[in-house]
């Protein structure tokens, strides 16, 4: 990679472009802090210089990967009033610029983003202009062949990624088991509170004996049946916490996280397992919302109870919209909408549409 | 004239949104119809135009920043008509007669007045009935001419009066029998 910066004498510098007033610059790359520096930005370069120390940093725009406002970090290194811009370099390092004025800072970001875009476009154009290989049918065949090859390569890489993920999971599980083992051994004399805490944590994290396809000889209903029971045991508590409703995606995350095994399950397996809930008399059922989102709903609350709860909630707050309800009940927004509409169908609440906002009120008159 | 006291549902925001649920909407329209009738009775309004009433305080509550849309008002009027409490006078102009008393009730009231004041066998113009000092204390004073004519036609069909043609409606004469 090219050198990211040049320390040179002032004489060498060609200070083109727009000048910005800065209070401080911190370069994580050169571990330097410049006070009251000057900053020049052109389409090609970002020049930073500290006249008092005769220090001069030059960055080529092509070595900058992105620029953004930095709100959280390293504020203490700057004066209280400074607004800080973070410039991410393509070698992973970054520099922070402290601006005196917000307006300067936004102009700077805008300019630099423009230049970055131009550079990217130029780069893309350059790569696109590769000479064409052959014409006519032969050319088409050649390009098809290349496409297929490329596809195969991508697929191969994807599987390689998955393999590495699996091996990492394996490592993690081993680590956890080892830790658990050592904790159990050193139990005597240890702070009991810590042990209890860890056990609780492990309980929320892990399933002791997860079902695997290998155990049950691959395919079939039996695998899904047992998986269904495992899913039920895993999500019963989180489901209650989430107001009786969870996205299937969230359920998938919970189940995957809870399985202390190297064998991941596929989303299709999870769906097939969840579809068995009815047959297994598990008090959870799958629903598909109008948007196509699949959710799991606890059967321990029936519709009438939910409607009654909503009515009470709306009454206590005078009026309620779907977003507020979703956050109060801790359920997905789409579910909140469908529940409110259900309650509306029952005539318990009614709507007030005003400037495209819909609020629900307790039905006092109709 | 005393100011009209609006019922509580007039300051309830959902009242101004036509409810999507059928049974809820039925009740909502019924409340609006009742309100229109009592409002018109209070201010002695005999007909409402759709466009004008969209800005009337009847359908606009500025204190909660809500108004009933024209299409919703049209539904209210249509409901009044279907229940026999109104009649489209001119569907194009969207003017609706509001029957806080129906024509046959008006007919009865007018005929009672005729009998009590000894006006049988005499001829009156419609203008006289509407604006004469003698009728000032009666509800049909300053009545809408179209509605008056409709009411008299009811009496005519009962054989209680004969209507004479005139050039304009106020020129019309009526002989009570």
Give a quick precis of the structure.
The complex is a heterodimer of chains A (366) and B (177). Chain A is an alpha+beta fold and 366 residues long. Chain A has helices spanning 102-128, 136-185, 192-205, 221-241, 248-258, 267-274, 303-317, 322-329, 333-345, and strands at 18-27, 32-35, 38-41, 45-50, 55-60, 64-70, 83-89, 94-99, 245-247, 284-288, 294-298, 349-354, 357-362.
What does this protein look like?
The complex is a heterodimer of chains A (366) and B (177). Chain A has helices at 102-128, 136-185, 192-205, 221-241, 248-258, 267-274, 303-317, 322-329, 333-345; strands spanning 18-27, 32-35, 38-41, 45-50, 55-60, 64-70, 83-89, 94-99, 245-247, 284-288, 294-298, 349-354, 357-362. Chain A is extended. In chain A, strands 1, 2, 3, 4, 5, 6, 7 and 8 form an eight-stranded antiparallel sheet that branches. By secondary structure, chain A is α+β, with helices and mostly antiparallel strands. In chain A, helix 4 (221-241) crosses helix 5 (248-258), helix 7 (303-317) crosses helix 9 (333-345) and helix 8 (322-329) packs across helix 9. Among the domains of chain A are: 10-125, Pleckstrin-homology domain (PH domain)/Phosphotyrosine-binding domain (PTB) (PH-domain like), CATH 2.30.29.30; 221-283, Arc Repressor Mutant, subunit A; 303-362, Arc Repressor Mutant, subunit A, CATH 1.10.10.10. With 177 residues, chain B is an alpha+beta fold. Chain B is 41% helix and 15% strand. A three-stranded antiparallel sheet of chain B has the order 1-5-4. In chain B, strands 6-8-7 form a three-stranded antiparallel sheet. The longest helix of chain B is centred in the N-terminal third of the chain and has 22 residues, at 22-43. Chain B is elongated and about 55 Å long. The chains are: A alpha+beta (366), B alpha+beta (177). Chains A and B meet through strand 12 of A and helix 1 of B.
């Amino acid at each position: 990679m090219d050198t990211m910066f040049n320390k040179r004498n002032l004489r060498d510098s060609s200070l083109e472009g727009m000048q910005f007033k800065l209070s401080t610059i911190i370069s994580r790359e050169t571990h330097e802090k410049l006070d009251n520096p000057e900053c020049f930005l052109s389409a090609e370069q970002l020049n930073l210089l500290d006249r008092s120390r005769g220090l001069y940093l030059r960055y080529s725009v092509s070595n900058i990967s992105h620029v953004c406002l930095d709100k959280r970090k390293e504020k203490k290194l700057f004066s209280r009033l400074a607004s800080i811009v973070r410039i991410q370099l393509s070698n992973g390092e970054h520099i922070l610029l402290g601006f005196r004025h917000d307006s300067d800072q936004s102009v700077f970001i805008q300019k630099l983003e423009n230049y970055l875009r131009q550079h990217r476009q130029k780069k893309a154009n350059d790569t696109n202009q590769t000479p064409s290989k052959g014409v006519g049918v032969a050319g088409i065949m050649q390009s098809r062949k290349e496409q297929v090859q490329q596809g195969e390569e991508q697929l191969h890489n994807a599987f390689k990624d998955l393999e590495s993920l699996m091996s990492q999971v394996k490592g993690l599980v081993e680590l956890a088991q080892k830790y658990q083992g050592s904790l159990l051994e050193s139990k005597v004399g240890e702070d009991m509170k810590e042990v209890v805490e860890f056990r609780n944590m492990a309980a929320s994290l892990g399933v002791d004996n997860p079902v695997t396809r290998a155990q049950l000889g691959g395919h079939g209903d039996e695998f899904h049946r047992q998986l269904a029971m495992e899913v039920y045991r895993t999500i019963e508590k989180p489901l209650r916490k989430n107001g009786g409703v969870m996205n299937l995606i969230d359920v998938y995350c919970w189940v995957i996280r809870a399985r202390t095994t190297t064998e991941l399950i596929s989303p299709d397996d999870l769906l097939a397992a969840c579809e068995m809930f009815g047959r297994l008399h598990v008090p959870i059922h799958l629903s598909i919302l109008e948007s196509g989102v699949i959710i799991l709903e606890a059967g321990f609350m029936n519709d009438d109870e939910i409607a009654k709860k909503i009515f009470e909630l709306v009454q206590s707050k005078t009026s309620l919209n779907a977003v507020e309800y979703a956050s109060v009940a801790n359920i997905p927004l789409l579910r909140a909408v469908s529940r409110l509409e259900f309650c509306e169908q029952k005539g318990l609440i009614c709507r007030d549409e005003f400037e495209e906002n819909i609020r629900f009120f307790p039905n006092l008159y109709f | 004239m005393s100011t009209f006291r609006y019922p509580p549902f007039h300051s309830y925001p959902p009242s101004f949104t036509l409810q999507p649920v059928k049974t809820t909407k039925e009740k909502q329209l019924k409340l609006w119809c009742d309100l229109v009738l009592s409002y018109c009775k209070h201010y002695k309004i005999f007909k409402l135009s759709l466009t004008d009433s969209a800005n009337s305080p009847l359908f606009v509550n500025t204190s909660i920043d809500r108004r009933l849309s024209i299409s919703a008002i049209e539904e209210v009027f249509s409901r009044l008509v279907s229940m026999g409490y109104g009649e489209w006078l001119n569907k194009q102009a969207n003017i609706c007669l509001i029957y806080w008393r129906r024509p046959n009730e008006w007919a009865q009231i007018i005929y009672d007045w005729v009998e009590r004041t000894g006006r049988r066998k005499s001829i009156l113009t419609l203008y006289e009935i509407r604006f004469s000092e003698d009728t000032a204390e009666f509800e049909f004073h300053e009545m809408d001419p179209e509605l008056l004519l409709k009411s008299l036609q009811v009496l005519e069909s009962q054989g209680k009066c004969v209507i004479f043609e005139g050039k304009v409606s106020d020129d019309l004469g009526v002989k009570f029998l």
